[in-house]
Structure formats: C-alpha cells, structure tokens
Amino acid sequence: MGHAGVLYCLAYLGCGAMGEGVSVFYNPRCSNCRTARGLLEERGIEAELIEYLDDPPTREELERVLRLLGTDDPRAIVRAKEDRYGELGLDGADRAALLDALVANPVLIERPIVVVGDRAVVARPPERLLELLD
User: 79-111: per-residue pLDDT in tens?
Assistant: First the structure.
C-alpha cells in the first residue's frame, strides 16, 4: 500500500471509543510528536505514524489534510520559522506556491498533524489532539 493508502484509507484499527483509525504526521526527533504519541498510547490508541520527512505527502494528500483541518490555507500547516522557508522567500507566496514548497520541502510541514476519521488538528500543543477524541 502506498503513502496515500496509509494516510487516507487509514487502516481502521478500531481504536478509541469512535472506532476510527488515527494517523499522525510524525517526526521522531520532535518532542511535540513524541508527546502526542504518548498521549495516544496512554489512552490505548494505536496510531499510524507517518514519517513524512522520509515519505513526503503528495499535493493531493496535503489538500485533503487541509480540508480535514477545515481550511484551504496552507499557511495553517507551514513551519514559517524554518530556515528553508526564508531561503525560498515564501512570506508573500500564494497558495499554489506554498503547496508546491511543502511537497518539495516536507521539513516545512508543521507537526504533529493528527487525523482521526474525517477530522484533523495541528497538535501544537500536543494536547490539542484530545479535541479529536471527544
């Protein structure tokens, strides 16, 4: 199964009270990602960890994540403080240019992004993921 299948078919694991699969855009070097994973594990929820730096999402996948977040603005998932953001001169970039930059430079994708069923949240702070579990 390709990356799209992992993220969007969401092998429904029967986790949590909702019975919905959980996936996380995950960077093992990120303390917020590790905390989010711990919060899920404390609740007995297994999540599909998507190590997006090794397996970058496609533009279509990013578009879907934005929809699940309830926005069409890619700035909602951009790490504007990354050096690469400045190097690419993205301050005034339009939507299309930002999406292209995210696909080509996954380090610019905010993390963790937690997806539960048809909803998602940028879990910063990590406790924001609890909104999806109610």
Answer: 999 999 999 999 999 999 999 999 999 999 999
Which sequence positions are flagged as catalytic? 30
The reply to whether CATH 3.40.30 applies to domain 13-52+111-134 is yes
pLDDT (tens digit, 9 = 90+) per residue, 9-62? 232 223 333 346 899 999 999 999 999 999 999 999 999 999 999 999 999 999
- Half-sphere exposure in the Cβ direction for 48 (13 Å, CA): 21
Domain chopping of the chain, boundaries: 13-52+111-134, 58-110
